[in-house]
Amino acid sequence: MSNVAESIRTEALVETVRSEVVSRETNWSGGLPLATPPRNAARVVAKALNTRTSDSAVCTAWRNAWRGSWLPSNDTQHALRCWAVMDIAGSVAEQIVALDEWATAADRDWARRELDAILSEIGNALLKSARTVVSLIGAPVPPLRADLETQITRVAILRGYLEQVRSGDLPAAALAELVDPPYLSALRTYADTSR
User: Fold this and answer.
1) Which UniProt keywords apply (predicted)?
2) Which of 81, 90, 105 is closest to 47 using CA atoms?
């Protein structure tokens, strides 16, 4: 894991993101389904599907998660939890791009592109995790919770980066170290072994 990532990641941040995930998932599952997916989650799914947020595929994925209608799903809560992580990720990315600390418009555009790539990875992993896999004998296989935890850790690090830039403890340019491919690989390994 990069030095920046290691200095940012704390259990408190990971727990904060987990709490926000549970809060969103509880709110969504406690009432009527939203007709359209939450805005920030829709953005992440659109990046993962390489389309626009208004694409019907985004709304279909949301309805499937809410109803638990992926083959044969018996864990709707897990699917909604995955969407909650995507919603938080989209919100954090939006706040990072909006930071005043970007020196030039070109720097801000670079950050947007890099974050879009991260959101696409997060979205792909969580859409896959939200589906219930069916084994060869037809029995449901539990969703991949390791993927969910990995993405929660990634979002926590992005949240920590945002907080440290706002407080002046990190320069905005430190994002370059967070989006470096070896960091992403190390982060996946870290998240898999830290539970």
Assistant:
1) Plasmid
2) 90
Judge whether 71 and 134 are in contact, CB under 8 Å.
yes
Per-residue pLDDT tens digits for 15-72: 999 999 999 988 887 766 677 889 999 999 999 999 999 999 999 888 888 776 555 5
Q: How far apart are CA 138 and CA 194, in angstroms?
A: 32
Determine the 3-state secondary structure of 10 from DSSP: coil
Q: Tokens standing for 64?
A: 């499937």
Cα distance between residue 109 and residue 173, in whole Å = 12
Q: Where do the DSSP E strands lie in the chain?
A: 133-134, 140-141
The Cα 186–Cα 3 span in angstroms is 11
For residue 164, give the nearest of 151, 178, 150 by alpha carbon. 178
Helix count and strand count (H, E) for the chain:
9, 2
Q: Are the CB atoms for 147 and 128 separated by under 8 Å?
A: yes
Q: Give the domain range for residue 153.
A: 3-193
pTM, full prediction: 0.84
The total number of structural domains in the chain stands at: 1
Express each pLDDT in 88-140 by its tens digit: 999 999 999 999 999 999 999 999 999 999 999 999 999 988 876 555 555 55
